[in-house]
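Complex record, two chains
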Amino acid sequence: MKARIHVTLKQGVLDPQGKAISHTLEALGFDGVEKVRQGKFIEIELTETDEKKAGEQVEQMCKKLLANMVIENYDYKLVS
Amino acid sequence: MKARIHVTLKQGVLDPQGKAISHTLEALGFDGVEKVRQGKFIEIELTETDEKKAGEQVEQMCKKLLANMVIENYDYKLVS
């Protein structure tokens, strides 16, 4: 089973990477870019095949390691 | 219109961040982690409302700035 995890900055948290992308896109001539936010995308292959157990495991991974819960949100999807 | 873009390392390209996560998850006691790959997740809000035009714009953004086509793949979804 594979977990596809997104870790994104919470609303209101400054995102310098997103700002850098936004400015560079403008400099390259792309019009109509309103807002850019950059986050992390993590794919984890798990040996666990039970969806409920895999979900609990991924929740714990996010809370303990992958996301900084003060400034980041996470969400994930499980695919088999 | 919003573009949700994933930029991931190509198969076979060394992923030290993924490896670091994998080792740390093991050290934290998580069993059954087979493989971890880390990529980037970028959300861009566009003023463009035409899906075809927005798609072309995002393709160009990925090729010119967001992804290093030598070592990375990209894919995206447009949501309105």
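Note: Chain A has a mean pLDDT of 97.
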